[in-house]
Amino acid sequence: MAKANAQFMKPCTPSATLAAVIGNTACPRTEVVKKMWTYIKNNGLQDKTNKRMINTDAKLAPLFDNKTQISMFEMNKYLSKHLS
Description:
40% helix
């Protein structure tokens, strides 16, 4: 059985901008992504026609360089800038 990657399990501290969306508790990257998807789905931000696209709102736009829409694949790249 493969050992879990320690980097993914290491708690990361969210920036103030990210904390506004997921809370300010340090948690592993996997948990950060889960919380982001919970926020996206609860607020109906997943594009209706193309489910791989995320429409940003006032809280998400600052995380994603103020873009109005990003792909789910871009999300991790932007999130890494907000984790330490």
